[in-house]
Amino acid sequence: MILLEKYDYHELKRVTTIDRKRKYELPNGSAVPSVTTILDATKPREEREALANWKKRVGETQAQQISTEAANVGTLMHKNLELYIESHERKVGSNVIHQKAYNMSNVIIAEGLRNVSEIYGTEVSLYYEGLYAGTTDCVGLWKGNLAILDFKQTNKPKKKEWISNYFCQLAAYAMAHNEMFDTDIKTGVVLMCSRDLGYQEFVIEGEEFEEAASHWNKRVEQYYNL
């Protein structure tokens, strides 16, 4: 795996607008919502109800603890992968959260990144002018195809039909990259590791990619119609 500066990536600034919304500031000075903001605002009712029922079942305090720990593990796992891609030293850490994240990143490196021959950027800021922006985990060659790569942690294994939002994210970043750099990315890959170090890989190409792109476009339209 080789890290190459093939595209002129620049980090986007995050700002808080007058209406107290967090957005990305684009080079032209305008501000647009993030991909995750749009997905959260347009979340289907059944997803909201499922989340509310889970919180009710486990209790608000326990639900917050689980969510916070998952977020911490995910952040540290991503940092480990970023350090690896940029050829920086990685340290295991002394506490259990750091160790868990380190071990999970090792699984993704061994099982997922072995299929990546070139990487063009990690934590890449992308935007579609006037509509949205966000930061994708990785852009690179996946089995010879230019692709958007997303690293995910999970408490337990996922089924493909459960992660349509992840596919929307991949399509959103791919379309933004295509718009910014005149590329033709139509491959998205989720590299996922569970807390018990189980590895899962989900790839969208062809019709599945087009379906995810169509779904994403509908969510964007829905967001701006709210």
Describe the structure in brief.
With 226 residues, this protein is an alpha+beta fold.
What does this structure look like?
The chain is an alpha+beta fold. The chain has a single domain, classed as Lambda Exonuclease, Chain A (Alpha-Beta Complex), CATH 3.90.320. Helices cover 45% and strands 26% of the residues. The protein has helices spanning 35-41, 45-58, 60-85, 96-111, 164-181, 206-225; strands at residues 2-3, 13-16, 22-25, 31-32, 116-128, 132-142, 145-154, 188-194, 199-204. The protein has a six-stranded mixed beta sheet with strand order 1-5-6-7-8-9, sandwiched between helices. The protein has a three-stranded antiparallel beta sheet with strand order 2-3-4, with no helix packed on it. Strand 6 (132-142) and strand 7 (145-154) form a beta hairpin. Helix 2 (45-58) packs across helix 3 (60-85). The mean pLDDT is 93.
